[in-house]
Design goal:
- Strand 2 and strand 3 form a beta hairpin.
- A three-stranded mixed beta sheet has the order 1-2-3.
- The radius of gyration is 18 Å and the shape is elongated.
- With 82 residues, it is an alpha+beta fold.
- 54% of the residues lie in helices and 17% in strands.
- The protein has two domains: 37 residues; 38 residues, no CATH class.
- The chain contains five helices and three strands, in the order E-H-H-E-E-H-H-H.
Length: 82
């Protein structure tokens, strides 16, 4: 299956585009050969949102950087709550 569709083609094949996204593919939608949107699964979007929330937590970022540098232990986000 394609991973990029024009708006017209995406409209015509919308059920197939959604099924592709549900299978984990990221589907791009183009207008005049420029990508203007993406169709992604709910699961992937929730993962992106969770990652953004974690990266917005300074305590998590400090712990993650310390772990990456080999200077500490990475703890679950729940253990980092103030």
């Amino acid at each position: 299956m394609q991973t990029t569709y024009s708006i017209t083609a995406a409209q015509a094949k919308f059920p197939a585009v959604v099924r592709a996204a549900q299978k984990g593919r990221v589907v791009g939608v183009t207008k005049h050969n420029e990508t203007v949107a993406f169709v992604i699964s709910r699961e992937r979007m929730e993962g992106i949102a969770e990652t953004m929330e974690l990266l917005a937590d300074p305590a998590f970022v400090r712990a993650w950087r310390a772990d990456k540098a080999g200077k500490g232990k990475l703890y679950p986000a729940s253990a980092l709550a103030d």
